[in-house]
Design goal:
Helix content: 25-40%
Shape: flat
Low-confidence stretches: 1-15, 102-109, 246-262
Order of helices and strands: HHEEEHHHEHEEEEEEEE
Number of strands: 12
Number of helices: 6
CATH class of one domain: Alpha Beta
Structural class: alpha+beta
């Protein structure tokens, strides 16, 4: 074989030329061998750093510094107690301030209506053992009072059409009677009618009557009380008259002069006007204080109804037999009269007995 026909490159036999296939682009092969880091310039070795030696602390000291569970609980309890006590004081202070503000506001804007010289008297005598006559005698009290009303809803207590008219008068009459009885008891057992008449300054009537009224209502109170009558009742006068042989003696000392007005009693047949006639709108009761205008006279008497025969209250439009007590006057049998409250005529009557 001829060596000249051998391809010097392939060192193989010469093969006829064929078209060369197109070369497809391929990604450059990745060298799996990591690239060596670029050489760096050598640096001078650093100076050795001092190594801190660990501090050994005894376990006892460490435990003493750590808070213990028991200690924490005590602190929490103390704080809770302080908070509770502080809250209680704060609440009390707030409540006191609120109460003070309410009281101050009430005092500044409270309603008050004053009624002066209202007439009052007891319905039945209060009995005591008279040391002078050595017997039991009965005494009557009557006079005037001043009342302050603090509730606007009560209205005008002098208006007979007011629903509170009879209620308040009955409460005051009861308290008045109890107070007069307490006064007599306060004088002791060895007393006379003169003692009862002259020692009223020794007793606090205002305080006593208001103590009784508190049990009924706190919306009004009595601020003044005066007596126009402190006198023996008619039965006691007759009893004394019998004891002294028919002559009624005023049981007072010679140096004492009585300023009390005598009381005349009369019985009468009356009729109360109806509402349509201008009379009462509500019932009247024993103890009611009326004025009496005698027909044909300009004199007007004032007194209380001490008794209503077989009845305890009087209805408008009805007729009744009453006993009334008035200040001394020239009353005659069969005198006719009008019953007056304020400026209104509420009834009429005729006297059937005077004594």
């Amino acid at each position: 074989m001829n060596d000249n026909n051998i391809n010097p490159i392939n060192n193989e036999q010469n093969i006829p030329n064929q078209p060369t296939p197109a070369i497809q682009p391929t990604a450059a092969p990745v060298d799996p061998t990591p690239m060596a880091a670029a050489p760096t310039e050598p640096t001078a070795p650093s100076a050795p750093q001092p190594v801190e030696e660990p501090i050994n602390v005894p376990n006892e000291q460490i435990n003493s510094v750590k808070p213990k569970g028991g200690f924490n609980l005590v602190v929490i309890v103390i704080i809770a107690i302080v908070v509770i006590i502080g809250g209680v004081f704060a609440y009390k202070k707030l409540a006191n301030n609120t109460s003070t503000n309410k009281t101050s506001s009430k005092e500044q804007s409270s309603y008050k209506k004053i009624y002066e010289k209202q007439k009052i008297g007891i319905q039945s005598p209060i009995y005591y053992n008279d040391s002078n006559y050595q017997t039991k005698l009965g005494v009557l009290f009557a006079g005037t009072y001043t009342i302050e009303v603090y509730d606007e809803k009560i209205g005008d207590i002098t208006d007979i059409n007011n629903a509170y008219f009879n209620q308040i008068y009955a409460e005051i009459a009861s308290a008045y009677s109890n107070t007069c009885e307490d006064y007599i008891k306060s004088l002791g057992s060895d007393i006379t009618i003169a003692d009862i008449q002259s020692k009223t300054n020794s007793f606090d009537f205002i305080k006593a009557i208001n103590n009784y009224l508190k049990s009924y209502n706190s919306q009004y109170k009595i601020t003044d009380l005066k007596f126009s009558i402190i006198e023996l009742d008619d039965t006691s006068k007759r009893r004394i008259s019998e004891l002294v042989g028919g002559q009624l003696t005023n049981p007072q000392t010679e140096n004492e002069s009585s300023t009390q007005a005598l009381v005349n009693s009369f019985e009468a047949e009356i009729r109360l006007y109806t509402k349509e006639e201008g009379g009462l709108h509500t019932p009247a009761f024993v103890g009611a204080t009326w004025s009496y205008k005698i027909d044909g006279s300009s004199e007007i008497l004032s007194g209380e109804v001490s008794e209503v025969k077989d009845e305890t209250m009087m209805m408008p439009g009805e007729s009744y037999n009453i006993t009334a007590k008035v200040t001394e006057a020239d009353l005659k049998l069969y005198d006719t009269f009008k019953i007056i409250i304020g400026d209104r005529e509420i009834g009429e009557g005729k006297i059937t007995k005077v004594y």
